[in-house]
Amino acid sequence: xxxxxxxxxxxxxxxxxxxxxxxxxxxxxxxxxxxxxxxxxxxxxxxxxxxxxxxxxxxxxxxxxxxxxxxxxxxxxxxxxxxxxxxxxxxxxxxxxxxxxxxxxxxxxxxxxxxxxxxxxxxxxxxxxxxxxxxxxxxxxxxxxxxxxxxxxxxxxxxxxxxxxxxxxxxxxxxxxxxxxxxxxxxxxxxxxxxxxxxxxxxxxxxxxx
Length: 210
Hints:
Elements: E1 10-14, E2 20-29, E3 32-36, E4 52-59, E5 62-73, E6 80-91, E7 105-110, E8 113-122, E9 126-131, E10 141-148, E11 151-165, E12 170-177, H1 181-209
Antiparallel strand pairs: 1-2, 1-4, 2-3, 3-6, 4-5, 5-6, 7-8, 7-10, 8-9, 9-12, 10-11, 11-12
């Protein structure tokens, strides 16, 4: 079983908005770590005590991660963050983009018509959605409007693949797109928040069952 990173191990600190910062482990005690204040973070982006985030590092030939909670910020020099681990260490996928979500409303538009569907999963590089109408083929240029929390994100993309399930009268459409840094950050942050919330609910369900 993979253990927490050792002192002086280089780590990535991933905040709730998806931004990633480099750091180094200064101390490890049981399920608590102290890391150097992440390099390059601005004062306006500083998380509050109690904030959830992710810590990722390389163990052998694998990249692993664990959810953590910020418990203290030191004022010493150099400044340090105190973190408490939440949950178990897990293998982190090597996809180019963080992918997740599911169930959100989406509109796919082409030729002046729009078709409503549901998101299966999405990332800042593409979306897989389920529609009830067979209107798209590979390489079609489309517009996509994805409903995320309190905002709708419009994107232009290209259909990569269509999987037709005639028995259930549904069509899974994969669409790729390019995002600006601002939009990419919004999608990445949303996906990470969903993942953390789902893991929190799972932990609470297990605890209540016990």
